[in-house]
């Protein structure tokens, strides 16, 4: 399995070094786990480590935090083990945040045994006039290779690090954290471009590290997987703390997504209670395999919900001494979790003794809350977070009063809704285009009370459509300035002059299927969805037997202007020369 | 001159990296000068760089500051030039602030061309539970060798880094900044020990880097040169910003002191106006030579004093339009300085264009101040500090009213003075012992209004004398607890039981002179005082032809308990094994 053609990559993200470092109990948690992760990389003799952002919890880590990090990186990632892969791309483009724009292991003054490649997260993002982040200190020291930092707010061009080990070619794409709304818009506006090598495009395994909201926090406050280019093979998704490391297939884009999750719980939410893992990714040719490695130093976290109204047999709000009974119930629940924790911890000497415990108590229906500080006292020696074990909550009211609310909000809402239907319903492509945005903005509004969502999206769509039509000479700048057309009218114009999106997408899908069935040459089985079995399982994933459209318009959404960007390649050692095609979002 | 037996050391201090880094004009000054210093080290192919503290201006340097520093160190101090000296001492003792307790150039994973040895200053001193300073980040990265960090507040043991190049043996002592009062007391209490190699003591050139007040800021708020062990050959004194780099001889201790001064002006005081230099120190055997190297990137700083009362021929406070005349005078003075600056800068392309200008205007005698913001406007394009060119001051009143003040202060002062004379005058050794402290405390009080100085010193002396006598069994702990003796009585007891200090010192001096005249074997001329000539001069200094007392009591002040400390020596490569004698302050 581990031969000279196989990349062995340790994948980890959201290490949040320094999280709660002043806490007497949990202070060392993040440090211990980074140590475990680096040690794991060393033991497994990986080719490199790929970090998905938020290595540091604080934008300005403390001295202790930086010192520990530097110390651990120097301890584990420097040494005599040789590096078995080459870099074929222009490193001055790949590593653009220091005066040493080359990979650390090729620096003649540093003896690197395990290169670390990292994008930055939202916690350790670049700030200040120099646009430097904490990672750049490590980068300048030669301990980390910070990549995926886009310096422009106008346009993002993601130029991959092209790695070759034996016969395997790995294109490593990365995009450091960008505010989700901004990135969302840039994707929608075709301002995000992923460059691809011009030669042998189908031979590359395309790996992309991203650090954004994956789950929808608002209409445009996340990045839909559909935004990502479908030539990718595997996306390593950082930022989301729930460990969903087993690659899941995106049926539309036909790539896989692995979400390793954080290696320390930074909130007491259910997502953080999932058992934490890192991944050992093997890539050989176009095939991959992701081995899940459970982390042993992570503090256990148990969470349970209690709905008091469900215990009507035992007590009701008016029952005498109901508070006492409720408290006893909670006490029993916490004790139960503590027992579970202890049982699970048996034989795991590296796991910290005191678990994190959270009991969410739904006291809807007339119950009252009890004194949590007295409750905490009972667990002060057994629980890592005695002060906030209990979290009281009440169910939200039902949504029967939407109409009432709309009435209260007044005409403005109605106007917006009307405008929405005028603009969107008549134009199929609009709702498709903004499938992830405007198409659902109405529901979003109703669901989540996000008042400005629709207005914002309509203005946005208006400007976009204007630009689109202007670029094609359908309307002029004067038309725009004079606000000659409503959005609805613009959409109709667009329908007339621009090839239908639905048609383009259907064509693209057909194209892919055809290629997929006829490409051959790869010996692996077709992609299969992988179910998450148990924590210790190794999940074999093989690369899809699908072909790549080389021509333009063969797939993708068929919109936008398609610039071809050729990037000169600096060569290192005995490596190939290559150049890039621009592969803008959704088109190739 | 530069042969295989000659250490070539670049000496610099108080670089204050990051000083005013947000200033539009001066923001890059400290960075440019660090760059110049490191470049100078590289060009001169020095064996190592010795920094005397305050490399960083801020205890928590900004990201930009750390990033720049790391970048420059990596650029200039890493590379293939071989290192020509060995370290003979136990490096785990020398470099005790990281998990890598060895000199960076011996680390197998780092290719160091110029090792940097640095003590910390008061600006970048260790803080927090971990006792880490900014320097330790560089240390952990392997870019700097931080030494001279004492982790104990009870006792300071300065264990030298023992370096050998060819036949030259260099013992490098360092003591990072400690609050002056605290260190003063520790010296007085014999809590500061300098260890010396047991073998071949006379063969070592003893170099000491210290970062403390050298000029007296208060009775105990500085470190008198006399406190330092007289076996030293050269003291590199950091912290003081005035460049007094030409070694001056301390006639009492017979060592030399070089005060390189800061490489950036952090205040507009006269000391900072002295031309800034770094030093190129050559040490061969026991001889040394310090070459002054003027810094080219340092912003010029001109300062002048104007006493308005001196211009009585031109104007008086009641002269019509006197303000205008005063302003014109100041204007002319500043213009004059600007002309001087420009002339001096001719042919110095690296020197920043706009100089720092300070005009101190003494307006005593009834004059008024004028509007400085209007004044500043005139020089906004020519001066680096337009906003604070003018500094108005008034002469202090004469000291004729000391008696009056004393009367106002009341009995307490008189009591203190009485107590002082009772205690001090009768006991010769007391005034000698505290020559730098209590002996001058009275004048200090009168001069500088430091009310607590005497009381503090007397209490201090009382405790010290008590401990001293208790250690000799003259008095008991019960006596102390019961406050059986006054300071005066204790001093008398001390006089009876402890050999007279004056006698001990006289004996020691005699001893030294004898040795000095008879030692021979060193071919250099006897020490000579060196006058500061011009900026470009090279000042040859040769080591004194003086012997070293090996026995105890042969010199020094003859007090205190003399512990012998033997330190195991870790060996690196082909180096000698050695051990240490404890050489406590003032005794051997």
UniProtKB/TrEMBL annotation, chains A, B:
<dbReference type="Pfam" id="PF04152">
    <property type="entry name" value="Mre11_DNA_bind"/>
</dbReference>
<dbReference type="GO" id="GO:0000723">
    <property type="term" value="P:telomere maintenance"/>
</dbReference>
<dbReference type="GO" id="GO:0030870">
    <property type="term" value="C:Mre11 complex"/>
</dbReference>
<dbReference type="InterPro" id="IPR003701">
    <property type="entry name" value="Mre11"/>
</dbReference>
<keyword id="KW-0255">Endonuclease</keyword>
<keyword id="KW-0269">Exonuclease</keyword>
<dbReference type="InterPro" id="IPR007281">
    <property type="entry name" value="Mre11_DNA-bd"/>
</dbReference>
<keyword id="KW-0540">Nuclease</keyword>
<keyword id="KW-0378">Hydrolase</keyword>
<dbReference type="GO" id="GO:0097552">
    <property type="term" value="P:mitochondrial double-strand break repair via homologous recombination"/>
</dbReference>
<dbReference type="InterPro" id="IPR029052">
    <property type="entry name" value="Metallo-depent_PP-like"/>
</dbReference>
<keyword id="KW-0479">Metal-binding</keyword>
<keyword id="KW-0158">Chromosome</keyword>
<dbReference type="GO" id="GO:0000014">
    <property type="term" value="F:single-stranded DNA endodeoxyribonuclease activity"/>
</dbReference>
<comment type="similarity">
    <text>Belongs to the MRE11/RAD32 family.</text>
</comment>
<dbReference type="GO" id="GO:0035861">
    <property type="term" value="C:site of double-strand break"/>
</dbReference>
<dbReference type="GO" id="GO:0008296">
    <property type="term" value="F:3'-5'-DNA exonuclease activity"/>
</dbReference>
<dbReference type="Pfam" id="PF00149">
    <property type="entry name" value="Metallophos"/>
</dbReference>
<dbReference type="GO" id="GO:0000724">
    <property type="term" value="P:double-strand break repair via homologous recombination"/>
</dbReference>
<dbReference type="InterPro" id="IPR004843">
    <property type="entry name" value="Calcineurin-like_PHP"/>
</dbReference>
<comment type="function">
    <text>Core component of the MRN complex, which plays a central role in double-strand break (DSB) repair, DNA recombination, maintenance of telomere integrity and meiosis. The MRN complex is involved in the repair of DNA double-strand breaks (DSBs) via homologous recombination (HR), an error-free mechanism which primarily occurs during S and G2 phases. The complex (1) mediates the end resection of damaged DNA, which generates proper single-stranded DNA, a key initial steps in HR, and is (2) required for the recruitment of other repair factors and efficient activation of ATM and ATR upon DNA damage.</text>
</comment>
<protein>
    <recommendedName>
        <fullName>Double-strand break repair protein</fullName>
    </recommendedName>
</protein>
<keyword id="KW-0227">DNA damage</keyword>
<feature type="region of interest" description="Disordered">
    <location>
        <begin position="516"/>
        <end position="561"/>
    </location>
</feature>
<dbReference type="GO" id="GO:0030145">
    <property type="term" value="F:manganese ion binding"/>
</dbReference>
<feature type="compositionally biased region" description="Basic residues">
    <location>
        <begin position="547"/>
        <end position="558"/>
    </location>
</feature>
<feature type="domain" description="Mre11 DNA-binding">
    <location>
        <begin position="288"/>
        <end position="445"/>
    </location>
</feature>
<dbReference type="GO" id="GO:0031573">
    <property type="term" value="P:mitotic intra-S DNA damage checkpoint signaling"/>
</dbReference>
<keyword id="KW-0234">DNA repair</keyword>
<dbReference type="GO" id="GO:0006303">
    <property type="term" value="P:double-strand break repair via nonhomologous end joining"/>
</dbReference>
<keyword id="KW-0539">Nucleus</keyword>
<keyword id="KW-0464">Manganese</keyword>
<dbReference type="InterPro" id="IPR038487">
    <property type="entry name" value="Mre11_capping_dom"/>
</dbReference>
<dbReference type="InterPro" id="IPR041796">
    <property type="entry name" value="Mre11_N"/>
</dbReference>
<feature type="active site" description="Proton donor">
    <location>
        <position position="123"/>
    </location>
</feature>
<dbReference type="GO" id="GO:0042138">
    <property type="term" value="P:meiotic DNA double-strand break formation"/>
</dbReference>
<keyword id="KW-0469">Meiosis</keyword>
<dbReference type="GO" id="GO:0007095">
    <property type="term" value="P:mitotic G2 DNA damage checkpoint signaling"/>
</dbReference>
């Amino acid at each position: 399995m581990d031969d000279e053609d196989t990349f062995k990559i340790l994948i980890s993200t959201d290490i949040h070094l320094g999280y709660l470092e002043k806490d007497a109990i949990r202070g060392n948690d993040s440090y211990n786990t980074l140590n475990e992760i680096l040690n794991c990389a060393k033991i497994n003799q990986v080719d490199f480590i790929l970090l998905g952002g938020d290595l540091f919890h604080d934008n300005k880590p403390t001295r202790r935090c930086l010192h520990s990090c530097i110390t651990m990186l120097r301890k584990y990632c420097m040494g005599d083990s040789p590096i078995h892969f080459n870099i074929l791309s222009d490193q001055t483009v790949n590593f653009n945040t220091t005066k040493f724009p080359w990979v650390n292991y090729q620096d003649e003054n540093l003896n690197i045994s395990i290169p670390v490649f990292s994008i930055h997260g939202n916690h350790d993002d670049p700030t200040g006039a120099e646009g430097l982040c904490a990672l750049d200190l490590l980068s300048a020291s030669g301990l980390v290779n910070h990549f995926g930092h886009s310096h422009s707010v106008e346009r993002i061009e993601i130029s991959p690090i092209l790695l070759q080990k034996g016969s395997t070619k790995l294109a490593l794409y990365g995009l450091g954290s960008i505010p989700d709304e901004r990135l969302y818009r840039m994707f929608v506006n075709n301002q995000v471009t992923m460059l691809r090598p011009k030669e042998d495009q189908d031979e590359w395994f395309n790996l992309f590290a991203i650090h954004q909201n994956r789950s929808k926090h608002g209409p445009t406050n996340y990045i839909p997987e559909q935004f990502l280019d479908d030539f990718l093979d595997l996306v390593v998704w950082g930022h989301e703390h729930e460990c969903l490391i087993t690659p899941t297939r995106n049926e539309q884009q036909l790539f896989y997504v692995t979400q390793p999750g954080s290696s320390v719980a930074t909130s007491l939410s259910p997502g953080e209670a999932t058992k934490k893992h890192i991944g050992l990714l093997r890539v050989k040719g176009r095939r991959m395999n992701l081995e899940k490695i459970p982390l042993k130093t992570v503090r256990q976290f148990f969470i349970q919900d209690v709905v008091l109204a469900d215990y009507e047999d035992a007590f009701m709000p008016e029952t005498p001494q109901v508070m006492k009974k409720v408290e006893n119930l909670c006490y029993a629940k916490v004790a139960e979790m503590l027992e579970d924790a202890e049982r699970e911890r048996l034989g795991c000497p590296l796991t910290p003794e005191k678990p994190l415990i959270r009991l969410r108590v739904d006291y809807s229906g007339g119950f009252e809350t009890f004194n949590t500080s007295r409750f905490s006292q009972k667990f002060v020696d057994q629980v890592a977070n005695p002060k906030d074990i209990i979290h009281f909550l009440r169910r939200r009211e039902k949504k029967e009063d939407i109409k009432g609310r709309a009435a209260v909000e007044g005409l403005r809402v109605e106007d917006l809704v009307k405008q929405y239907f005028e603009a969107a319903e008549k134009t199929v492509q609009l709702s498709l285009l903004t499938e992830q945005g405007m198409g659902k903005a109405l529901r979003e509004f109703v669901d989540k009370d996000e008042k400005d969502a629709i207005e914002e999206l309509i203005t946005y769509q208006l400007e976009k459509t204007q630009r689109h039509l202007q670029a094609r000479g359908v309307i002029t700048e004067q038309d725009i300035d004079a606000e000659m057309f409503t959005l609805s009218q613009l959409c109709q114009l667009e329908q007339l002059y621009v090839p239908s999106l639905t048609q383009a997408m259907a064509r693209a899908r057909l194209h892919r299927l055809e290629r997929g069935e006829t490409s051959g040459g790869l010996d692996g089985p077709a992609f299969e969805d992988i179910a998450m079995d148990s924590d210790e399982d190794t999940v074999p994933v093989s690369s899809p037997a699908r072909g790549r459209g080389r021509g333009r318009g063969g797939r993708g959404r068929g919109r936008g202007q398609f610039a071809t960007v050729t990037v000169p390649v600096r060569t290192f050692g005995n490596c190939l020369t290559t150049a890039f095609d621009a592969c803008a979002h959704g088109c190739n």
